[in-house]
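Duplicate of #3305? Posting structure anyway:
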């Protein structure tokens, strides 16, 4: 039996449904032809709480949607909030664990992950998700 992939979204990726109206779950099902489980990093949840406190209007709705979406999935402890940049913590988790797919629109993080052989899912043209990197 093949093990499932771990799909790890960063904070901005979780904001996509609220900002662009993209159903990231059905998009992930469309582009990932493998068994996968979505894991929400603990530091991402904490960052959403921080953003929620200082956001208003449409952005606040996007944050609340992201938090509601995140509650549907398991949380994974990857580090401590505020200790190091969240991108670095996600990067370390992805590189030090097998079968991890990171969901991010952060160009710097995406480049670092791809250089280290980690597949990345990102938002393309503000309407569809795309996978970069091979899943064996």
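Output from current build:
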């Amino acid at each position: 039996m093949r093990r499932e992939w771990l799909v790890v979204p960063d904070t901005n990726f979780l904001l996509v449904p609220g900002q662009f109206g993209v159903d990231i779950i059905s998009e992930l099902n469309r582009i990932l032809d493998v068994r996968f489980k979505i894991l929400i990093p603990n530091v991402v949840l904490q960052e959403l709480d921080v953003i929620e406190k200082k956001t208003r209007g449409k952005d606040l709705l996007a944050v609340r949607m992201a938090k509601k979406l995140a509650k549907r999935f398991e949380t994974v402890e990857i580090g401590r909030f505020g200790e190091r940049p969240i991108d670095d913590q996600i990067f370390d988790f992805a590189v030090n664990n097998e079968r991890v797919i990171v969901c991010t629109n952060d160009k710097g993080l995406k480049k670092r992950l791809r250089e280290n052989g980690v597949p990345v899912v990102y938002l393309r043209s503000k309407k569809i998700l795309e996978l970069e990197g091979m899943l064996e």
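Confirmed duplicate; merging threads. The mean pLDDT is 95. The radius of gyration is 14 Å.
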